[in-house]
Amino acid sequence: MTLPRSRTRGGLAVVAALSLALTGCGADGGSEGGDAATAPGPEAITEPIEIEFWHSMKEKNELAIKAMVEDFKKANDKITVKPVFKGDYDQMVVAYKQAIQQEATPPLVQIYDIGSRFMYDAQQVVPMYKFIEKDKFDQNANIEPNIASYYTIGGKLWSMPFNSSAPLLYMNADAVRKAGLDPDKPPATLDEIGEWAKKLTVKDGSTVTQYGFNAALYGWFVEQLTAQDNAEYCDNGNGRSGLATKVNFGTGAGPKFAQWLGDLVKEGYATNTGRPTDQAQNAFKTGTVALHLESTSALGGYTEAAKGKFELRTAPFPKPSATSTGGTIIGGASLWINAAGHSDAEKRAAWEFVKFANSAEQQSKWHAATGYVPVNPQATSNDNPNFQVAVTQLRAQQPSPATSGCLLGVMPEARKAAEVGLEQAVPAGAGQEAKTSADQAMQNAAASLQSSIDKYNANVK
Amino acid sequence: MEARAIRRRGPTGEHRLSLLYLAPSLLIFAIFVFYPLGRTFYLSTMGTDIIGRANKFVGLDNFADMFADPGFFKALGTTALFVLFTVIPSIFGALVVVLLLESRISGQRMFRTVFALPFAFSVATASVIFALIYNPAVGMANGILSYVGVERIGWLTEPDLALISVSITTVWMTLGYNVLVLSAGVGAIPTEVVEAARLDGATGWRLHRRITIPMLSPQLFFLIVISTIHSLQSFGQIHILTKGGPDGATSTLVYWIYEKAFSYGSSDFGTASAAAIVLLVVVLVCTGVQFGVLERKVHYR
Fold it and tell me: Could you tell me the pLDDT band of residue B301, with boundaries at 50, 70 and 90?
């Protein structure tokens, strides 16, 4: 009984499209957003106002949002923020697009990192820099430059980073010590991880009881490793000096990672748990895997799972080679303030909340409750050393086009294409051959995106 | 005379009344079926902007795009295999279970309940459970295999095996419903027919082949039609277990449509609608063929 669900969604889209056709406007609704939009001052709020805030935070993260909203209510008696969960990041984009068509966007919306170019092109928002200029808000003192760089387009900040995550290497420290290795000197490159993985693979007869390494076939890792190599994932300065017209993961770190992981799986030192990240997470949490790549967002869950079972340690995300000079890219999501169809009071109320959420005090609480990296450099970071690794890793690097990440309208699709490339290049299990060579698989994957990129660019020009 | 008068007057009055009774369902059909259907045809001829709005008439370009995409044909093939792998085992399996339960064994009611139980699981719950079972490193399936000394299997990560693994999950989920329907069918077979056959010396397999299965043919036909349609429209288990992967091995037509329309920030409703029309045609043809070929063999009482 599952099609009805997707059909209903299609139906909703259709109903949305109908309401658009009936009202006959919507196309001009966008003219209010973008560079021409203005940021209202505090005088815009004259009476109590309630605004909706669409987010994608679940479980403990959603509770943290509710706590933040409560704190905000205490500090601002005139503004009530109503958090509304709209499904995961992908579903949020679907919901948001429908809302644009129905002219029913919320004043404030949380959109994932890879939706940023779409948000820019959709021209629905008041860019964050407008409020920053209006209020003479000290951006450098309040927003970590390495995080702000991702959301900066044309030298200006378009959205407020909110929940930021970074990639990490996770270790089962007990297993590491048992193999005679030192968790205080973690492997720093893919090759070093490979060496460790060989020593960390434990067999009982012919069956493997512990794999040295595992990571989901997650396109995000290809993006991270490309940035670690100080290379750009897409052209035109990672889409920051103009619309990106092609992706570069067909060469460089992309095929290198695919080849490396494929070899480890083939030789039996790594297990291939496929694309869904929870499959890889389950394998690591149960102690079946010694080394593992994931985002900081998994740290809370891992800490919980490892309790009483094994000692959990984190280390900086690996570099493709010892000579790599780049850094990692921030992940997670940011907050966008909608302009189209919203009153000055609503826009201002949204900004007040954004400012509040960014404050050092709130970011400290948010970081402690969720494990996301604090966006505000003045925020106190969690004293758990496993969290510290991510914060140190982030603050140590210099913002550059490579580590700002690629801005691409079809970025979510690009990530998926990279994952299909990995699926082709990484064999299913030990002793098996991959269907396609790593170079060929990643090149095909990059080429498969071309029509989508061209179609998108033709639509926004 | 009087009867004829009533009959003549009847239709219009009754017709109006029947329309009134039908109005609520007609309204719901109009909103949720006929209108989206018409809209699908419309959208299939339109280009889509980045927000998902139909922005220009493109004629048959969406169909051309779709037929130019090798992924589309792969999805069609995958869909056909998926139907084959799910419909036949789930109906045949249910039939075997029901016939076995017919023999007088102790705990019959319990077994019937147990076999019907998967029907109570939602697609999402069942899929999550199977995802845990299939996990290559820590899953139960490989755990059992390792006891008997068999190498670990990438249930969902081997392109050749993933579709079969998803099909197994689907068969498990649909088996319960099929068992329920067939059990009810067996229960409705008049005892005198069975008694008569027994008196004539039919027992065991012969009794089933000559009496039980023919008497079940309406239920079997119903299940074949319904299962085929359900199978063609399966989504949840694919989304949760494999997301259409590895390398598109489990991307059925419905999943392909979903990806075009909603997944990965995409909103290509034009191409998705074109594919939805293909799906509609496939369902119509399958159902038509089934009615044309199979229904003739159905024994209605």
Answer: low
pTM metric for this prediction: 0.82
Q: How far is CA B22 from CA A288, B14, B28, B242, in A?
A: 60, 12, 10, 42
Q: Is A22 on the interface with B (CB under 8 A)?
A: no
- A104 lies in the same domain as A238: no
**Reduced to 3 states, what is the DSSP secondary structure of residue A136?**
coil
As for the ipTM of the complex, it is: 0.73
- Residues 217 through 276 of chain A touching chain B, CB cutoff 8 Å: 217, 271-276
Tell whether A461 is within 8 A of chain B (Cβ): no
On chain A, the residues whose CB falls within 8 A of the CB of B261 are 10, 13
Mean pLDDT calculated for residue range A259-278 = 93
Same structural domain for residues A152 and A178? no
B-chain residue closest to A457, CA distance: B50
The total domain count for chain A is 2
Of A353, A368, A402, the residue that ends a domain is: A402
Q: Phi-psi region for residue B214, left (φ > 0), alpha (ψ -120 to 50) or beta?
A: alpha
Mutation choice for A interface testing from B177, B264, B267, B269 by most A CBs within 10 A? B264
The answer to whether B153 and B141 are in contact (CB under 8 A) is yes
A436 and A322 fall within a common domain = yes
DSSP state of A123: T
pLDDT recorded at residue A272: 93
A73 has a chain B CB within 8 A of its CB:
no
